[in-house]
Amino acid sequence: MIKIQTFVFNGFQENTYLLYDETNEAVIIDPGCYSSSEQTELIDFVTKNNLNVLKLLNTHCHIDHVLGNNFVCKKFNADLYIHELDLATLHATTEYGHLYGFNVDKSPEPTHFLNDGDKITFGNSTLDVLFTPGHAPGHVVFVNHEQKFVINGDVLFKGSIGRTDLPGGNHNTLIDSIKTKMFALPDDFIVHTGHGPTTTIGYEKKYNPFLN
């Protein structure tokens, strides 16, 4: 059974997720850890629970979701997985980071490119990859059907959706991703968002003002 640990990191209040199961194998999704105290918080949890971090997964590569990429890959010798269409987004973070007050460590290059329909495995667990562009060109989400949850980055938020005014964003594409990919999941699936609280597919279908 997958356990999900959430950390809230950096000035953007970004949700970083660490997933692990009974084998103690783990993956980290969207490491926003920037300060030394945030890095220590992540290390302490991994150490306390005797976890073996195998993979680093980026839902997308906006700066707030990848500030810890270099740290995580080096500290845990983890392989980096992104969608190839977000490679330019990843490379750009070092160019504009100073505008947000961040001195960005250059992320390692990805070792694997994700595609729609891929399966990410760790321990006894599996995550299915869905391609959900719109907020970013190469945005993906990670779904676990057995436990009915999705780690969805910045596609859906509780009562809102990801912004589409950043380079590579497209409002119509995002709405299509939500309606054809996200809303194809059952209503009781829990949505772990890139910022803010969790929600469910059913709640967003019924109450999200951007989708009704």
- Spatial strand sequence of the major β-sheet: 1-2-3-4-5-6
Order of helices and strands: EEEHEHHEHEEEEEEEHEEH
Distance between the termini: 35 Å
CATH class: Alpha Beta
* Average residue pLDDT: 97
Total domain units = 1
Count of helical regions: 6
Main sheet, how many strands, which sense, barrel?
Answer: 6 strands, mixed
Per the CATH scheme, the topology name is: Metallo-beta-lactamase, Chain A
- Quaternary state of this entry equals single chain
Q: Can you name the CATH architecture?
A: 4-Layer Sandwich
Percent strand equals 25-35%
Structural class: alpha/beta
Q: Estimate the global geometry from the Cα principal axes.
A: globular
Low confidence ranges:
none
